[in-house]
Design brief:
single chain; 655 residues; alpha+beta; Calcium-transporting ATPase, cytoplasmic transduction domain A; Rossmann fold; seven-stranded antiparallel beta sheet; seven-stranded mixed beta sheet
């Protein structure tokens, strides 16, 4: 039995929880709100003049003992689990020392700020998890499954690959799979970010959690639970903190050495001044909590932001490298272009109408399985052009197709038919082929008998907004953009010129792309590679950061790429790069402004006796709070001037 989406969330939340079951039962609801508020109120009460004489004790003792006990317990647990001195040890020593010298209020403030800072951190993490939970809530709990010739309602946890499910208008699709019967219009905004519904026919892929707005579909189940596109997103979000970038690893290592150094420094201050208050002030201000929080809070917030918009980022290491990309390689087919041929121009050479040329072409091409044949049929259907059935169909390898349509011998093929037949207007055909091929298009000639009646120009069409996407990538700061393609240089140049790319490599084999990536990395470049994740998988894996487009339906894309765009919107590449650079900036602010600078200044002031334990507690913990708040800004970050529409979750009327 596979693990359902709700089960995946529960597993990861249990795995990543900071508390064991006993702690959850004691503190989950009360600690989050009541406990910090109670500590704050008692601290404020301790500031009231005369309260100590009235009650016979300093009220600050209460938050001091309660908050201190909680922090002491957590520190002991963390120390035993990690088997090393943690940052919490400094806090505990500072609390004990402040209590010993009677600085109850300072100790209470330290305890409160530590707990409040952790509370704010959890809010940031919770917002990221909520983004995942919102997606999981879109998954129906049951599905209509074909069993023994009957449609029966079963829990989605009981589904397996190979099952067939029925999805009706207004319902959400419960699995990843392919349509085997029916037609429909599916809103995929929740997964891919596409704002317009996508028409689905037989063999079209569909994804869990998307909404069938019209029609009815029978779907063959291919992936369920954690193997589905949504399941992969959930796992990536929850595992993001485990894959640390270099900045985070350095910060963690620094924090582990920092604690013994500060303990030694406090001993030096004691021997130099014999002032225990100064020692306590040093211990309080020097706790590296802000440093420890600097990177993980920013990474989790950024990964959560991306996940809400249909982008998987596999942790801090990938995010950090993406922020340093200075060379971006773009595969042409399926990335800059749609990856399928389309009719882009129809020419009449002997006076026939466009409809007549398309009609006879479609009659012949209907019997062929070639991709260009399907392009002709699509064009005819989109134009509403009907055609007569053909007979005596024959396919000439490397040339084209021919058949008899209404007693006329029709041929549709490339320029090689000019060498095989004596057409009366051969020169017109040559001129048309030369003109179209000079534009990087494939030229097809349509002949009736010994006359070339027209020509069709076929090309792999550029994705909408591809040119603006390239412009926005340059705005992010990636100046060196190179297009890679296996097509000839003439075709590649035409595409590159239209989208605004000045550097390209054409006539490439898959191994050539690998060599280009290796050469650029050898030059010290940080290389990003954008591809469709299928034939580009080796290059995606070899590059510093592989970015796969349209990854919702291809598991190889999710596995080979560090960043996976669920949809096909090329503009999301600039969004991801901008988010990565912004995350690096936030991390640097967290480390150098709120952690290192505050600690250095605070230690100097505390050692000189200018900073009391209370002042040290406030300064230190305020810096930790600012780290969390600064990182939380990444949850809503958008590239300046961005026009990407965020996922709009439509209401479901049937799920």
């Amino acid at each position: 039995m596979h693990e359902g989406h709700h089960g995946i969330v529960e597993k990861h939340e249990k795995k990543h929880s900071r508390h064991n079951e006993t702690e959850v039962s004691l503190f989950t609801h009360y600690r989050k709100w009541v406990f910090p508020v109670f500590l704050l109120l008692t601290i404020l009460a301790a500031l009231i003049p005369g309260q100590e004489r009235l009650l016979g004790l300093d009220i600050a003792v209460v938050p001091n003992l309660l908050g201190g006990a909680f922090i002491f317990y957590k520190t002991i647990v963390a120390t035993l689990e990690t088997r090393r001195i943690t940052a919490g040890v400094l806090v505990v020593i500072a609390l004990i020392g402040a209590t010993y010298i009677g600085e109850y209020l300072a100790a209470a403030i330290v305890a409160f700020m530590m707990i409040a800072g952790e509370f704010l951190e959890e809010i940031t993490l919770e917002k990221t998890r909520n983004a995942v939970r919102e997606l999981v809530r879109l998954v129906p709990e049951t599905a209509l499954v074909l069993r023994d010739g009957q449609w029966v309602e079963l829990s989605i946890d009981d589904l397996s690959p190979g099952d067939r499910v029925l999805v009706r208008s207004g319902e959400r699709i419960p699995v990843d799979g392919k349509v085997v019967s029916g037609q429909g219009s599916v809103n995929q905004a929740t997964l891919t970010g596409e704002s317009m519904p996508v028409d689905k026919d037989i063999d079209a892929p569909v994804f869990v959690g998307t909404l069938l707005e019209a029609g009815a579909l029978e779907v063959n189940v291919e992936r369920v639970g954690e193997d589905s596109a949504l399941g992969r997103i959930i796992q990536v979000v929850y595992e993001a903190q485990e894959k640390k970038g270099q900045t985070q690893r350095v910060a963690d290592k620094f924090a582990s050495y920092f604690t013994p150094v500060i303990l030694l420094l406090s001993v030096v201050v004691w021997f130099a001044t014999q002032d225990l208050i100064r020692v306590m002030s040093v211990l309080v201000i020097a706790c590296p909590c802000a440093l420890v929080l600097a990177t993980p809070t920013a990474v989790v917030a950024a990964v959560g932001n991306a996940a809400k918009r249909g982008v998987m980022i596999k942790g801090g290491a990938v995010l950090e490298l993406a922020g340093k990309i200075n060379v971006l390689l773009l595969d042409k087919t399926g990335t800059l272009t749609r990856g399928q041929p389309e009719i882009v121009h129809v020419a009449s050479l002997t006076g026939q109408s466009e409809a007549q040329i398309i009609a006879v072409s479609a009659a012949v091409e209907e019997l062929s399985e070639h991709p260009i044949s399907r392009a002709v049929i699509r064009y005819a259907r989109n134009m509403g052009i009907a055609w007569k059935p053909a007979s005596e169909f024959r396919q000439v390898f490397g040339v084209g197709v021919q058949a008899v349509v209404e007693n006329n011998h029709i041929q549709v093929g490339n320029r090689r038919i000019l060498d095989q037949h004596s057409f009366v207007n051969k020169t017109d055909g040559q001129r048309f082929a030369d003109e179209q091929e000079s534009r990087g298009r494939t030229a097809l000639l349509v002949a009736q008998g010994n006359i070339i009646i027209g020509g069709l120009a076929v090309a792999d069409t550029i994705r909408p907004r591809a040119a603006s996407a390239i412009r926005r990538i340059k705005e992010v700061g990636v100046e060196n953009i190179i297009m890679l393609t296996g097509d000839n240089k003439m075709v590649a140049s035409a595409i590159a010129e239209q989208v605004g790319i000045t550097s390209l490599r054409a006539d490439l084999l898959p191994e050539d792309k690998l060599q280009i990536v290796s050469a650029l990395k050898a030059e010290g470049k940080t290389v990003g590679m954008v591809g469709d994740g299928i034939n580009d998988a080796p290059a995606l894996m070899l590059s510093d950061v592989g970015i796969a487009m349209g990854a919702a339906g291809t598991r190889v894309a999710m596995e080979s790429a560090g960043i996976a765009l669920m949809g096909d919107d090329l503009e999301m590449v600039s969004e991801v790069l901008s988010l990565s650079r912004r995350t690096l900036g936030i991390i640097q602010q967290n480390i150098w402004v709120f952690a290192v600078a505050v600690n250095i200044v605070g230690i100097v002031l505390a050692s000189g006796g200018w900073l009391t334990p209370i002042g040290a507690a406030v300064a230190h913990n305020v810096s930790s709070v600012f780290v969390v708040l600064n990182s939380a800004r990444l949850l809503t970050y958008r590239m300046k001037g961005q026009t990407i529409r965020d996922n709009q979750v439509p209401h479901s009327h049937g799920a």
